[in-house]
Design brief:
Keywords: DNA-binding, Repressor, Transcription, Transcription regulation. This protein has 182 residues and is mainly alpha-helical. The chain has one domain (31-179): Tetracycline Repressor, domain 2 (Orthogonal Bundle). It is built from eight helices and no strands. It has helices at 11-18, 22-28, 32-56, 61-72, 80-92, 96-122, 131-151, 158-173. The longest helix is centred in the middle third of the chain and has 27 residues, at 96-122. The protein starts with 10 loop residues before the first helix and ends in a 9-residue tail after the last helix.
Length: 182
């Protein structure tokens, strides 16, 4: 699916790549849409579970928020997970089963960001009247910057993207830029 894209991949392509019969795939998944839905849902659940592990770790609210920002940003322009999600966003415009999973994933990210921000406010580390709104804005900004980073080679480095994310986060949670690592 990463080679051909979600819409262009056939069950026969998946069978060949995984060295199984198309019949076996159809035994488990009635349609290609069912297969894509299962794959995206499993990937989404894995990402949200990993994000929950990240925020459960030790450290201040700033450290935990910084770990979330660093996790969100792909390690390279060829990050397979991000390429998959970019493709899914394009497909989700027309395919309700894909859109539903994307909204679930987005909701999970926003919920976790809001949780980190709310806990920071409760501990007096952050100053934010609307943690959910802050999380939505950070999530949307990150999506846009990551798309730009992934699609436009040389337009922005990962380091610069992370700096933009940290600056936006400081504005949202009411702390100075110096609170984040250099």
């Amino acid at each position: 699916m990463l080679e051909r894209g979600l819409a262009s991949t056939r069950v026969a392509d998946i069978a060949k790549a995984t060295n199984v019969s198309g019949g076996l795939i159809h035994y488990h998944f009635a349609t290609k849409d069912d297969l894509i839905t299962a794959m995206l849902r499993a990937t989404s659940e894995t990402e949200v579970r990993r994000l929950r592990e990240i925020i459960a770790g030790p450290g201040t609210a700033v450290q935990r928020l910084d770990r979330v920002l660093r996790y969100y940003i792909p390690s390279s322009r060829s990050d397979q997970s991000w390429i998959l999600w970019l493709d899914a966003w394009a497909l989700g415009v027309r395919e309700p089963h894909v859109r539903e999973i994307l909204l679930e994933l987005e909701g999970g990210w926003i919920e976790i960001l809001a949780e980190v921000i709310s806990e920071g406010v409760q501990k007096g580390e952050f100053f934010c009247d609307d943690p959910m709104g802050a999380a939505e804005r950070l999530d949307g900004m990150l999506d846009g910057l990551v798309v730009r980073y992934t699609l436009h080679s040389g337009a922005m480095s990962r380091k610069r993207l992370l700096e933009h994310a940290r600056i936006a986060a400081t504005h949202e949670v009411g702390i100075p830029r110096s609170a984040f690592p250099a």
